[in-house]
Design a protein that fits this description.
The protein contains 9 helices and 10 strands. It is α+β, with helices and mostly antiparallel strands. A hairpin with a 6-residue loop joins strand 9 and strand 10. Helix 1 runs antiparallel to helix 2, helix 1 runs parallel beside helix 6 and helix 6 runs antiparallel to helix 7. GO terms for molecular function: hydrolase activity. Keywords: Hydrolase, Membrane, Transmembrane, Transmembrane helix.
């Protein structure tokens, strides 16, 4: 999730666990620790693709964070020796903040290796968008109330209510995702549209409008569905996938890693004689968030080049149409159709 949400989540969890014992210190340390796992973005991993696939790896491991917890508790007690009697509650609070950070990240579509080093599988439920005010707002209100009323039980009760509402929102997202996925599979079957992989993720900033990605070897389809639609029919736009552009690059490490990390939800394009792999899961066609140059066009086959990430050219002009499509199925929303 975004940094603001992780700060709010950390503050809320810290206050819930140890706020009554140490007051505002719980909110402050929760905020600081809530951002700690994402500092791995400051560590160079060896290349553009490596930076992409190893973000949310060891730094987001439940096991690594458990091993780190005693050191962080020691640091906190060094700075606040008057709270030593609460060392065990501090330990629970620290690990709870770190663990909820990585577990929340697992609800997004990016991929979080929470079981590293036992497994490097990137857990990606994809049921909540990386920035969703409906998830963040209840907790933020609860944290603000607890800061104002930190000497009152009412403040801590409000904080718990905020956490509860936000947690229920995550459950809602899982249910909505399963519902839309079932509709999508049925709609594809009715249209005799085959697919090897199917993914359903929310569109930006909401959980009412969902993006459906169906992938085959040589093409992929994108469709959109709002929970307010009065039909269960999906209109899917077909795009070429151009797998032939990877001929000769199949064993190249950046290519194999991108195929693995994206779980097969990727496309290949030729841009100015460069072979570009785009992760289909994040962004709206054709402005994907993660695009990498992995080769160059040559005769007879493409040749590998040092991997490089291309700039993400976000087209915010699509957002009004997307928001309008949530409420009205007659509003056309087919980004990238003219590509």
């Amino acid at each position: 999730m975004d940094s603001v949400t992780q700060i709010v989540l950390g503050s809320a969890v810290g206050s819930a666990v140890i706020g009554r014992q140490v007051g505002a210190k719980a909110v402050v340390w929760g905020a600081l620790l809530g951002t700690l796992p994402d500092l791995d973005t400051l560590i160079p991993m060896g290349g553009a693709v490596a930076d992409f696939v190893y973000h949310r790896s060891f730094s987001h491991s439940l096991f690594v964070l458990a091993a780190l917890t005693p050191l962080l508790v020691w640091l906190i007690l060094k700075l606040h020796p008057q709270t030593r009697e609460h060392r065990w509650r501090w330990a629970v609070a620290v690990y709870a903040v770190l663990a909820t950070h990585v577990l929340l990240d697992s609800f997004t579509v990016y991929g979080t290796q929470i079981f590293w080093p036992l497994s490097d599988y990137p857990v990606a439920l994809g049921s909540v968008f990386i920035i969703d005010p409906s998830y963040t707002a209840p907790m933020l209100i609860g944290v603000l109330i607890v800061l104002v009323l930190r000497h009152s039980r009412a403040g801590y009760r409000a904080n718990l209510i905020g956490i509860g509402i936000s947690s229920l929102y995550l459950v809602w997202g899982l249910g909505a995702q399963a519902y839309v996925k079932n509709l999508a599979e049925a709609s594809l079957d009715k249209q005799s549209l085959t697919h090897q992989r199917l993914m359903v993720t929310p569109t930006p900033f909401n959980s009412l409008m969902w993006r459906v990605i169906a992938v085959d070897d040589d093409h992929y389809r994108i469709g959109y569905y709002s929970l307010l639609d009065k039909t269960d029919w999906f209109d899917m736009v077909r795009y070429p996938r151009s797998p032939e552009l990877l001929k000769g690059l199949e064993s190249y490490w950046p290519v194999r890693k991108l195929q693995w990390f994206s779980k097969g939800f990727y496309t290949i394009d030729a841009e100015n004689d460069a072979v570009v792999i785009s992760d289909l899961r994040m962004g709206l066609e054709p402005d994907f968030a993660f695009r990498f140059v992995v080769g160059e066009i040559a005769n007879p086959h493409p040749t590998p080049v040092p991997d490089a990430r291309l700039e993400n050219l976000r087209n915010w002009d699509q957002l009004p149409a997307l928001m309008a499509r949530i409420w009205d199925s007659s509003v056309p929303f087919e980004p990238g159709l003219s590509r």
